[in-house]
UniProtKB/TrEMBL annotation:
<protein>
    <recommendedName>
        <fullName>DNA circulation N-terminal domain-containing protein</fullName>
    </recommendedName>
</protein>
<dbReference type="InterPro" id="IPR009826">
    <property type="entry name" value="DNA_circ_N"/>
</dbReference>
<feature type="domain" description="DNA circulation N-terminal">
    <location>
        <begin position="35"/>
        <end position="122"/>
    </location>
</feature>
<dbReference type="Pfam" id="PF07157">
    <property type="entry name" value="DNA_circ_N"/>
</dbReference>
Length: 494
């Protein structure tokens, strides 16, 4: 794995810089030190990054007193600005410089994907400087000063500790989407999209549409309705522009791939919230709902089939690396929504949670395998950021599952003599030692009733009697529902 990943950070930027006329400062050995980064969605290459960090300490000296009596006042931590020197390299370097200029003019917080610091929320602190030079063809240098702005820190008690693991998981899933967006923009960045690349992209979209059609044709009606618009967008495909001067084409492909899985997760409903529903979704008095388990099964199958489609396309296209990369992106978008559905799942026991976690981990591991195959095939874009975000998501789901396992009960099945419906009896028997039947005066003891879990769908009892009334006793072996009891089911507490 490490051997494959070592090639992920070396992409087309080194090739572009090595061909720059007069670019001695960015060619040769130094070009290998560059790292791919992005600010506000614009990809560039970092050659230098500086940042100072420390504490705000005030030193106090007193007149006429020795230095040894000095005092210090600590005002806490401080992050100094991040000063970045980067390069926009390639045939489209002027267009990318124009996009970077718009980013520098944008107000508010922005996302910086740093090759060493990772993903940061920053603000532009000082005006950036973009420099063109006749001695560096196809390369634009720029400098920018940023400051970290993570936002206000939310604090909470026990509830905050419980939800932290799930919040972290959702943040990592969002980071996967951001990295996938950067990968698509890098693959579909040429000024003139080759016919082979556009054909392969539309083929991927078309086959992905077929996958979703087959997986959702028997799905609940609310799910089919929820994904209808996104499915139509995916089936329509995306036409390549005559001049690919911005990220419009890449963004359209990204929207088409991400729309259906996102809509599927959004279609998950809570039965308790379905008070009023459209007429076509109601048959009699039953309201059809979409549970998280159904959506998870669909997403797991879609991820596997999408990976297989990308592998098949790589065998027949003239750009197999791009096909595998777009396949990784499509699968990443599905897995990211799969992680979003994790929080909607409910588990009866710790064993159920561990089983579900193992299936999610298997889906993530399969995605990592596809990513490594794409890198090994000679992908021209950097996939290191995507690999890091997927690994972080894998760790996050394991942490959240471990947190849930600690709060879930251990369910043990006990063989019993007979069963009754839980509709009327669990709350009557739980916690009681014995009851007397009003009709026949038989005393029934519920020795195991105190161990009944209130969340079980079916409750089992074991009874024994202290007297032997003929009617009840003869009917006892055939009793399996409350309405089959030969006597009045209302009991008196002894």
């Amino acid at each position: 794995m490490s051997g494959t990943l070592s090639t992920l950070g070396v992409g087309s930027f080194a090739d572009a810089l090595s061909g720059a006329a007069g670019g001695n400062l960015v060619t040769g050995e130094l070009s290998q030190l560059l790292g791919t980064a992005a600010l506000g969605g614009v990809i560039f290459d970092i050659i230098d990054s500086r940042e100072a960090a420390g504490r705000r300490v005030e030193r106090i000296l007193f007149p006429g007193r020795p230095v040894e009596e000095q005092k210090f006042q600590d005002f806490g931590t401080i992050d100094q600005p991040i000063r970045i020197t980067g390069y926009l390299a390639g045939d489209d370097y002027v267009i990318r410089a124009q996009r970077m200029r718009k980013v520098l003019l944008t107000a508010g917080r922005q996302t910086l994907v740093h090759p060493w610091w990772g993903r940061l929320k920053v603000r532009v602190l000082e005006p950036g400087e973009i420099q063109f030079s006749a001695t560096r063809i196809r390369v634009a240098q720029f400098q920018v000063v940023l400051v970290r702005d993570p936002g206000p820190v939310s604090t909470g008690g026990l509830l905050q500790d419980i939800t932290d693991t799930l919040t972290n998981l959702l943040e990592q899933a969002d980071a996967m989407v951001d990295e996938a967006t950067l990968a698509v923009q890098a693959v579909l960045s040429p000024l003139a999209i080759p016919l082979a690349l556009s054909s392969m992209t539309n083929s991927l979209l078309s086959q992905a549409s077929g996958i979703w059609d087959s997986l959702t044709q028997t799905a609940p009606q609310p799910l089919q309705t929820g994904i209808a618009s996104a499915q139509a967008t995916l089936a329509a495909g995306v036409s390549a522009p005559a001049s690919n001067s911005d990220t419009t084409y890449a963004d359209a492909v990204m929207t088409a791939l991400a729309g259906v899985p996102a809509a599927a997760v959004n279609a998950i409903t809570d039965p308790s919230d379905s008070v009023v529903a459209p007429a076509q979704q109601v048959e009699g008095s039953t309201v059809e709902t979409v549970d998280a388990a159904t959506v998870v099964e669909i997403l797991l199958s879609a991820a596997v089939q999408t990976g297989a489609v990308a592998d098949s396309l790589s065998d027949v296209t003239t750009s197999p690396a791009d096909a595998l990369t777009l396949g990784v992106v499509a699968r990443t978008l599905i897995v990211s929504q799969l992680l979003g559905a994790w929080g909607s799942l409910t588990f009866v026991s710790s064993a159920d949670a561990v089983t579900a976690r193992d299936r999610f981990i298997a889906a993530i591991d399969a995605l990592l395998t596809d990513l490594e195959n794409a890198a090994a095939s000679g992908a021209s874009v950097s996939l290191s950021g995507l690999w890091v975000s997927i690994q972080a998501a894998r760790t996050a789901i394991m942490a959240d599952c471990s947190s849930q396992v600690g709060r879930l009960p251990k369910v043990v099945s006990i063989p019993i003599r007979t069963t009754i419906s839980p509709g009327r009896w669990p709350m009557r028997w739980r916690g009681m030692t014995s009851r007397r039947c009003r009709a026949c005066s038989m005393i029934w003891s519920a020795g195991t009733a105190s161990a009944i879990p209130p969340w079980s769908d079916r409750v089992t009892f074991r009874f024994w009697s202290s007297s032997h009334e003929p009617d009840c006793y003869r009917s006892w072996p055939q009793v399996d529902r409350a309405d089959q009891w030969p006597c009045d089911p209302q009991l008196d507490v002894l």
